[in-house]
Write a structure and sequence with these properties.
By secondary structure, this protein is mainly β. It contains one helix and 22 strands.
Length: 406
């Protein structure tokens, strides 16, 4: 197995980490680790995570930030087809009253490289085994009175090995051939401008450009322009309303006519019902239409409601009870959930949770954590996953973790 840090020596990686740690005492930094393993009759699996975030203020207006995340498991998780991967980022940010500039570099290294099929239609007999991804970016933003502007540019390169497959008629087998490693480039750029019309209302415009240099660059070029608006208004001492609207017009010859215009909107109402009792209701909508704006097509929508009560006996306000629901018929992703956390004694907290996705699964969570004031936390956790139909075996997970602040 190719090691996850093969493109960087262990000594160099350790040296960079130590330098960042030794120089970052002036900021709030953190190191979080977690390990989860399954228990019971099902096939055992485990997941390990480690996150480090360190920030150093070289000057009051100049900050250096380093973040790294390492994850390894014997189960494929989320969008990562690799079982081991490491993501690290280094950025420097300069701030002035009228200008903020930030430059960053990010790299992702994969352990056991897996096939990544980028061309399921054009080239069904070709996939890629990705090894590393490098990304550099630059962003600028400025604000003067009621005007606000920003711009960004991102370059991303995926290092991968193409793999082609040839069918051998004599042996009745498929033979794979791994080719030399190549770089697949992506470029993203954009600019935004906004004006504060009222203290509670801001409107603006933006442009976007994206281009991918794979095997056929013309199929992966996209330009876009649009308008947006944001609302944030306090109706009274207990009620606040937030809203947004974004219209994006996209330009690409491969887009279907009805998907050229994207319309995204949302509204959220927050209200304090009683001292310690807060609630909100939100609605999100994503739609599209053709150039003539003749017919509106629904992509997805969602309604979410939640209520939360903070118990007065806890001076740190970390003891609470919450319940909520999410309804999304278009995506068949409705859910009901509740969670409670209570201070048992001194710095010891217990948390229980429940989540139900109709026709998918029910999930129960338990967590016992001890806080070290100003230093961090150590915790134990348990999770039970009951998938539907009920004939499927339940999943049980046990884990532990810690958070250290320095």
């Amino acid at each position: 197995m190719r090691k996850v840090c093969s493109s960087m020596s262990k000594q160099r990686y350790l040296l960079i980490t130590l330098i960042i740690l030794s120089c970052s005492l002036a900021a709030q930094n953190s190191w979080k680790t977690e390990f989860i393993a399954s228990v019971g009759d099902k096939e055992p699996l485990w997941i390990g995570r480690s996150n480090l975030n360190a920030e150093l203020y070289i000057k009051p207006n100049l900050a250096l930030n380093f973040r790294t995340k390492l994850e390894s498991s014997d189960a494929l998780e989320r969008e990562f087809p690799q079982k081991t991967w490491s993501n690290s980022a280094l950025s420097i940010k300069y701030t002035q009253p009228l200008l903020t500039a930030e430059a960053s570099y990010r790299s992702t290294l994969w352990g056991s490289s897996k096939a990544l099929n980028l061309y399921p239609v054009d080239s069904p007999g070709l996939d890629f085994r990705r090894n590393a991804e490098h990304q550099s970016s630059l962003s600028l933003s400025s604000e003067f009175q009621k005007l606000r502007g920003s711009a960004f540019a991102i370059h991303r390169q995926l290092r991968a090995r193409p793999v082609s497959y040839v069918y051998d008629w004599q042996t009745d087998t498929t033979i794979s051939e791994v080719h030399a490693e190549k770089g697949l480039d992506n470029v993203y750029a954009g600019a935004d401008a906004a004006y504060q019309i009222r203290p509670y209302l801001r409107a603006g415009a933006f442009v976007r450009h994206s281009e991918a240099h794979f095997d056929r660059a013309d199929s992966y070029r996209m330009d876009a322009a649009g308008l947006n608006a944001e609302l944030e208004h306090k109706l009274d001492s207990n009620t606040r309303i937030l809203g947004h609207f974004v219209w994006t017009n996209r330009f690409n010859e491969n887009l279907s006519p009805e998907s050229r215009n994207l319309l995204q909107s949302g509204v959220r109402i927050q209200r304090t019902l009683l001292p310690g009792l807060n609630s909100f209701v939100s609605y999100q909508n994503n739609s599209c239409t053709d150039a003539g704006l003749d017919t509106l097509y629904l992509i997805s929508n969602q309604i979410r409601a939640q209520i939360q009560y903070h118990f007065s006996y806890d001076p740190d306000k970390d003891s609470y009870l919450l319940a909520g629901a999410k309804f999304s018929k278009s995506n068949e992703a409705s859910a009901f959930f509740s969670e409670a956390q209570s201070r048992i004694m001194n710095r010891l907290y217990a948390r229980i949770g429940w989540k139900w996705l109709p026709e998918l699964y029910v999930q129960y969570n338990g967590r016992l954590g001890y806080f070290f004031y100003g230093l961090g936390e150590m915790y134990l956790l348990y999770q039970k996953h009951e998938p539907f139909p009920l004939q499927t075996a339940d999943f049980h997970y046990l884990g532990f973790g810690s958070s250290i602040y320095f």
